[in-house]
C-alpha cells in the first residue's frame, strides 16, 4: 500500500487534478454525504492539508468534480422569497434566462457529456438532490416526502422541456420566443408543485 506523501508533494503530475479525479470517483460511487475530505486525500495519495489548500471545503471540491457550468444557488437565488403559488413562474424564468444566455452552448455540451457518462450522471443526481430539489420544495404546504416527490416531478418537466427545445431542437418548441417558452413551462411546473396528485398524495406515504 502506498504511503501518503507528507510535506511538499512531488512535482510529478497535476496534484489538483489528482484530487479532483479521486473526488469524482468517490462521489460517484458513494454519494456526497458518505465521502470525507480525508478519504479523497487518501485516494489521491496526497496530504489532507493539500485538499484544503486547493478547495474551500467539501462543497467546493464537489463543484469542481461535477464541473457545473452554472451555480444552482445563483440560478435559484430568488426562489426563497417566492410564494408556493408563484414557484413555477420563478423556476421557468430562471432556467430559461440561463439557457438563453451566453452559456447556452456550454450547457448543451455539459448535458450531452453527462448523459453519456455513468459517473457524471451520478454526480449530477447528487447536485439535483442536494442543491435544487430542496430549494424548489422549500415552503410547499406538504410533508417532506410529498415535497420531495413534487419537486422531483417538476425537475423531470423542466429537463424534458430543455432537452426538446435546446438539444433535440423540436419544432415549434425550439422557435418559441423566450417569454412564450416561459409562459408554457411555468404553469406545467406549477401544476406539479401545487396541483392535485394521483392517489391524493405521495405513494406509500
Helix percent band? 55-70%
Average per-residue pLDDT, rounded, comes to: 85
For the record, the CATH architecture of the largest domain stands as Orthogonal Bundle
The main pleated sheet reads as: none
Note the total helix count. Answer: 10
One letter per element, helices H and strands E, the order comes to HHHHHHHHHH
Please count the beta strands (DSSP E, at least 2 residues each).
Answer: 0
**Beta-strand percentage?**
under 5%
The tally of structural domains comes to 2
Give the CATH superfamily of the largest domain: Tetracycline Repressor, domain 2
Rg of Cα set: 20 Å
CATH top-level class of the largest domain: Mainly Alpha
Uncertain runs are 1-9
What is the fold named in CATH at topology level of the largest domain? Tetracycline Repressor, domain 2
Form type: globular
What structural class results from the helix and strand content?
Answer: mainly alpha
How many angstroms separate the termini?
48 Å
Characterize the structure shown.
The protein contains ten helices and no strands. The protein has 205 residues and is mainly α. It folds into two domains: 52 residues, Orthogonal Bundle (Arc Repressor Mutant, subunit A), CATH 1.10.10.60; 129 residues, Tetracycline Repressor, domain 2, CATH 1.10.357.10.
Amino acid at each position: 500500500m502506498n504511503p501518503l506523501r507528507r510535506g511538499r508533494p512531488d512535482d510529478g503530475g497535476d496534484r489538483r487534478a489528482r484530487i479532483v479525479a479521486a473526488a469524482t470517483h468517490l462521489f460517484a460511487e458513494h454519494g456526497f454525504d458518505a465521502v470525507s475530505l480525508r478519504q479523497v486525500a487518501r485516494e489521491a495519495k496526497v496530504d489532507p492539508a493539500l485538499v484544503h489548500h486547493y478547495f474551500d471545503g467539501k462543497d467546493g471540491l464537489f463543484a469542481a468534480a461535477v464541473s457545473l457550468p452554472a451555480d444552482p444557488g445563483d440560478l435559484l437565488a430568488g426562489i426563497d422569497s417566492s410564494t408556493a403559488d408563484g414557484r413555477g413562474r420563478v423556476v421557468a424564468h430562471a432556467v430559461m434566462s440561463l439557457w438563453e444566455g451566453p452559456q447556452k452552448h456550454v450547457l448543451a455540451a455539459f448535458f450531452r457529456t453527462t448523459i453519456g457518462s455513468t459517473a457524471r450522471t451520478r454526480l449530477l443526481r447528487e447536485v439535483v438532490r442536494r442543491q435544487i430539489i430542496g430549494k424548489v420544495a422549500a415552503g410547499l404546504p406538504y410533508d417532506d416526502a410529498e415535497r420531495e416527490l413534487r419537486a422531483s416531478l417538476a425537475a423531470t418537466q423542466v429537463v424534458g422541456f430543455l432537452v426538446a427545445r435546446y438539444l433535440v431542437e423540436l419544432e415549434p418548441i425550439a422557435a418559441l420566443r423566450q417569454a412564450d417558452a416561459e409562459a408554457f413551462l411555468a404553469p406545467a411546473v406549477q401544476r406539479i408543485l401545487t396541483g392535485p396528485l394521483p392517489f391524493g398524495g405521495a405513494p406509500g406515504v
